Amino acid sequence: MKKWSRIAFTLLAAASLTIGLTACSSGKDELEKVRVAEVTRSIFYAPQYVAIEKGFFKEEGLDIELTTTWGGDKTMTSLLSGGADIALVGSETSIYVHAQGSDDPVINFAQLTQTDGTFLVSREKVENFDWEQLKGSTFLGQRKGGMPQMVGEFVLKQHGIDPHNDLNLIQNIDFANIANAFASGTGDYVQLFEPTASIFEKEGKGHIIASFGTESGHVPYTTFMAKDSYMKEESETIEKFTRALYKAQKWVDESSPGEIAEVLEPYFEDTESDIIETVVDRYKSQGSFATDPILDTEEWNNLQDIMDEAGELPERIDHGTLVNTSVAEKVSK
């Protein structure tokens, strides 16, 4: 009896050990899901897709559930309501939320793009372009209050053009229909994102003659942000996420446009590979992709200057109030 008791005990102990080891092994291999809401699907966000496709997030133990929310307001609603853990959207949205008196402010913790991503496209080919040539023209702009429009107006004013008096400025067309409106004959000039600008140029529908990103300088155009409560409760996750992003930023900085385009192709199945490569090359050459996740004070102040010039800045916010660079600085060392 005692012999069988000992055998039974030994088997039970072995079984318990096996179960324990299996559980530990399973726990080790299990990835933590992080829900990310991106404001739109864009080649402009290349390092994010690289971080997913190259396995940099998985190396950090993270499983990214990426959702495209199509619009800054929808993206912030998703974040604030708990539908997303992290949002990729323009930094200006965190200022708008703060101005409404949120009890749980949205904190910018990692920068993805550091310039505007739009281009000035003309209907006719222009030799020796000068911004003065825009005066008196019909200009298809972007949505009022959004970063593209604010940067557009900022650049125009820098070149001595009053967008509301020197131009026939059209702003009442939905973002999704701006390109179609221009293609159908509306406007002499249009402010377009890629890859539409390059596609239009390839098809002879327009000509890229200037870059708003080059003209406006460095600005935290698109950043990863999270609610302050999530930043504190999931600090380890935020660090892993930022470290994976930094790996991708370095990879993009060191790789050729062709190599990057190949990685991006699954995310842009309706865009020809040569167009993807052209767009990546254009963004790389003008320094649009941030090479590290740190959103510095100068960029933050430039953002607010642009918003203020457009009459859209609710109040001036100190860099340290809505920006946390501690994690980005740590992983970038």
Give an overview in words:
With 333 residues, this protein is α/β, with parallel strands linked by helices. It folds into two domains: 31-115 and 219-332, 3-Layer(aba) Sandwich (D-Maltodextrin-Binding Protein, domain 2), CATH 3.40.190; 118-216, Periplasmic binding protein-like II (D-Maltodextrin-Binding Protein, domain 2, 3-Layer(aba) Sandwich), CATH 3.40.190. It is built from 16 helices and ten strands. The model is unreliable at 1-28 (pLDDT under 50).
List keywords for this structure.
333 residues; alpha/beta; D-Maltodextrin-Binding Protein, domain 2; 2 domains; five-stranded mixed β-sheet; 16 helices; 48% helix; disordered N terminus
What's the layout of helices and strands?
Elements: H1 2-29, E1 32-38, H2 46-53, H3 56-59, E2 62-68, H4 72-80, E3 86-89, H5 92-99, E4 106-113, E5 118-122, E6 138-140, H6 147-158, E7 168-170, H7 178-183, E8 189-193, H8 196-203, E9 207-211, H9 212-216, E10 222-227, H10 228-233, H11 235-254, H12 257-264, H13 273-285, H14 297-309, H15 319-322, H16 326-332
Helix pairs in contact: 2-11, 11-16, 12-13
Concise structural overview:
The protein is an alpha/beta fold. Helices cover 48% and strands 16% of the residues. The protein is built from 16 helices and 10 strands.
